[in-house]
Inverse folding.
């Protein structure tokens, strides 16, 4: 399972490694959203199209440091999403956030360092933005 963000009514941005076949076969895959529990997401759409960044290395292995380079994929929804109390489109940044600014991150990703444990409930954390030099 992979997460993504609705950037408008028709498009989701996610990681390119989530769009690699056979992980996602766009004719059979369903995108779900709109809830706090992974097993109770009230809205869904089939995938109409996917666009993997042209510089993403589809053959990169798990341990390859280049695996995360250009790791972007756009997924077009067959049925448009509608904003509601539980659904909001993300605003894409126009630049880098300021160092030490507090940001909120959410997701259902793995919560274990050694092993795999994907939570049922949406996880959230507040983080301080690091400067780009320290991050590398």
């Amino acid at each position: 399972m992979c997460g993504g963000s609705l950037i408008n009514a028709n498009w989701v941005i996610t990681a390119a490694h989530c769009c690699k076949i056979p992980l996602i076969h766009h004719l059979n895959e369903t995108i779900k959203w709109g809830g706090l529990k992974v097993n109770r997401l009230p809205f869904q759409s089939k995938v109409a199209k996917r666009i993997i960044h042209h510089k993403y290395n589809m053959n990169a292995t798990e341990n390859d440091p280049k695996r995360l380079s250009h790791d972007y994929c756009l997924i077009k929804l067959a049925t448009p999403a509608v904003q509601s109390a539980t659904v909001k489109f993300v605003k894409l940044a126009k630049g880098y956030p300021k160092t030490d600014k507090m940001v909120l991150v959410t997701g259902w990703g793995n919560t274990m360092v050694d092993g795999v444990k994907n939570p049922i409930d949406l996880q959230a954390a507040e983080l301080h933005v690091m400067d780009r030099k320290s991050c590398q």
Notes: Helices lie at 132-135. The chain has one helix and seven strands.
